[in-house]
Each structure stands twice: as C-alpha cells, then as structure tokens.
Design brief:
- The protein is an alpha+beta fold and about 90 residues long.
- It has two helices and five strands, in the order αββαβββ.
- Strands 4-3-2-1-5 form a five-stranded antiparallel beta sheet.
- It is globular, with a radius of gyration of 12 Å.
- About 10% of the residues are buried.
C-alpha cells in the first residue's frame, strides 16, 4: 500500500471501525514476506473474555500495528497496517 502517513492513519482508523462491527477478511504481507489471509475482528461480542489482555498488548505494539482477534485460530494476532493488500 502506497499511502502517506496521514492517509495510513485514516485507513487504520477506518479499518478498525470495520473490524468493530464484525469479522473482516484481511490479506497482508507478513514480516517473512509471505502472504496471509486472516478472518479477524474487534467486535466486543466476538472477543474472548480476556479483553483486558488485548488492551495491554495494544499498548506494547508500535503505532503501525493493528492488534486483532483471529476468529479462525481464536487467538490475538497483529499485522502492520502498511502491509495490508486487501480487506
């Protein structure tokens, strides 16, 4: 994704809004260069009861990461916002 810093922030905010409503399929490039397709969400109704752990993890991640709940693996994961290919 070739977005400037301002557009990346807006995209991240928009994507997190979409994730809050329900599962979203996100395709991104992992750090090792492979592509990953993940069904993920931030919808409170679909999150595990350990939501406080998520808040702590979010604080420890750099701002260019998005922490999400992988609905298939039933685990918290994260991806770099600028590495998103599709959603």
């Amino acid at each position: 994704m070739n977005l400037n810093e301002t557009d990346l922030k807006l995209f991240k905010k928009w994507l997190k809004g979409c994730l809050a409503f329900g599962p979203v399929t996100v395709t991104f490039t992992k750090k090792d260069g492979t592509e990953r397709i993940m069904n993920c969400t931030l919808n409170p109704l679909l999150l595990p009861l350990t939501e406080t752990v998520q808040k702590e993890r979010e604080l420890s991640k750099p701002k260019d990461y998005v922490a999400v709940y992988d609905v298939d693996l039933k685990e918290w994961r994260s991806f770099v916002i600028k590495n998103v290919k599709a959603f």
